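fold-stage: in
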Amino acid sequence: MIGGHDAHPTRANSRYTRSPAPVAPAAPQPFAMTICLLKSKIHRACVTGASVDYEGSLTVAADLAERVGLRRYERILVGNMANGARFETYVIYGPPGSGVIELNGATALLGKPGDRLTIMSFAWLDAAAAATHEPAVIVLDAENRVIRG
C-alpha cells in the first residue's frame, strides 16, 4: 500500500476505478425533406393585353387558371417565349371563358399582345408525395383555347 491507498488499478476500492464503457452518440434524427416540383403549367398562353398602369400581377381567365389549379393571388413564374424574359408575379382571375391573359403593372414592360407565355407554379412536397406527383398542364392555341391537357 502506498500512501494509504492500494496502488493496483483493478481493485474495486481503488481510486483508479474504471469508467463505464463509452456510449455511442445518438443517431441524428431524420428531418422531413421536401422538394419543390412543378405544380401547374399553362403553356403557350397568348398575351391579350398589357396595362402598365395597373398595380401588378398577371390576369388569367378563371377557367384556365382553375383547370390547372392556380389560385387567386398564387405566386407564379412566367417565361415569355418571344423575348426570353422571366419574371415572378401573382395570378388574378379574369372573366371565365374570355381567354384573357394580361400583363399588368411592371410586367407589362416585359411583353406585348401576341407574345406566348409559359405560366408556372410550384409546390413543396415531401418525399412520399413527390414520388407520385404529376403536375397539371394545359397547352393553349393562339386564341387561348385548350388544345391539350
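fold-stage: in (second)
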Amino acid sequence: MTEKTLRAWDADGKIKTVRTAGNQRRLPESEVIHLQGELYQAVKQTKTLIYARCSTEKQRENMERQVTRLEEYCRIEGKDYEIFCEIGSALNGNLKQLKRMIKRVAVGDVKEIVVEYADRLTRFGFEYFVEYCKTYNVVIVTLEKTESKAFEQELAEDMITLVTSYSARYYGRRGGRSKKVGDTIVKDTESEIVSDTGAGEVVS
C-alpha cells in the first residue's frame, strides 16, 4: 500500500487520520487494525494445509503414511488442500517446509492446518503456534489426540539428542578453560603446563 493510496483514502473519508503540530498525517493504530480486518474479509479463507513430518530417513514410510491419511481425510471432507512434508527432528530450528507453511498462512486465504499429531508441528511451544495461527483466523486440526508408541520412541530419541548436544557444548567449554598458577598457565583437562614464554613440559 502506497502513501499516495493512503492520501486518496483520507481525502475520500475511507480512513481517519490525525494531524501533528507540523501538519503531518498520522494513521492511528485503530485504523490500521480496521484496514487489516477489511483486507482479510476480502480474501476468502478456503485453503487447507497438510503438514507431515518424521525425524529420520528410516522413518520415511511413516511420513508417507501420514500424508496418505491426511489426504484421505481432506478428500472425504471435500477440502482444497496443499501438502507440506519433510524429514527432520522437531528440535531442529530450521525445518524448511514448516517455515514455508508459516509464510503461507500469512497470505490470508488459509482456513486450517491439518496434522496427524500436534507434535508433528512442534515438540515444544505448540500453544504459541496456535496463537500465531489465530491472528489469521486459522485453526489447527489434529486427527489423533493420543500419541502412538512410535511417537513416544521418537520423543525419547529427541530427548537423548538434546541432552547429548548440551552435554557436548558444556564439557567442550570446560575443556577449553585454563587457569593461571604463578607464572604458568594450566589447562584443566590436561596434565601439560605451559609457561608464559611458550615452552612447556609434561608433568608426570
